[in-house]
Amino acid sequence: MAKSKRTNFFWVSYSDLMTSLFFIMLVLYVVTFSVLKIELFSAQTKAVKLEKIEEIQQALNSLDKAYFEFDQENKRYKLKTDVKFHSSSDKITDIAIDKRIEILNAGKDLYSKLQKMIEKNPKVDYLLVIEGNTQRSYYSNIWNYETMPNVGYRLSYKRALALFNYWKSNGVDFRKLGNQCEVILAGSGYFGQSRDTENEENNRRFTIQITSKVGKLIDSK
User: Fold this and answer.
1) Separation of CA 106 from chain center
2) What's the pTM?
3) Count of CB atoms within 10 A of residue 1's CB?
4) Membrane-spanning residues where (predicted)?
């Protein structure tokens, strides 16, 4: 009789143990399945966002190559039109009329591309930087950038502003693109990264930088 009770107690305990193990395994399965499902969804979402970022980059790459070229070293777009201001000048009229027409067409092409990208990708912002440059000059055994760097900053900024106002006065106003296109006018003075180190006269010009700010796209769920 005592042996029978011990046997019954063993099987009851064994049954409870198996039941407990079953529920533990069930919980682990549910947790594991949920984690894997979340990770799979996250991976799929990242893949879609990466595809969107690549699509945006391809759109930027489609800028008219008659007006723009990509600076591989500095990873930025530059106006291909050979424009030069007169020395110490910020007057847009220094530039020949045919070159000014090319610059205007470049602005129209850039505006059109940005407008289409904004309409297609409402969660992506863009940064447009118009950067003026200034030529380094050597007088009396000393470089101008060493003695009066602020002059270069002011002059290069005025050149960037001259381009912005020229575009705006001809109907190409990037501010109309709204908050999704931030426009920055910059003067790099004698120290811009896109400088022509072989021919200083080529630095009496400006550089156009256009990049996508994908923060909202990356942060979106």
Assistant:
1) 19
2) 0.69
3) 5
4) 17-36
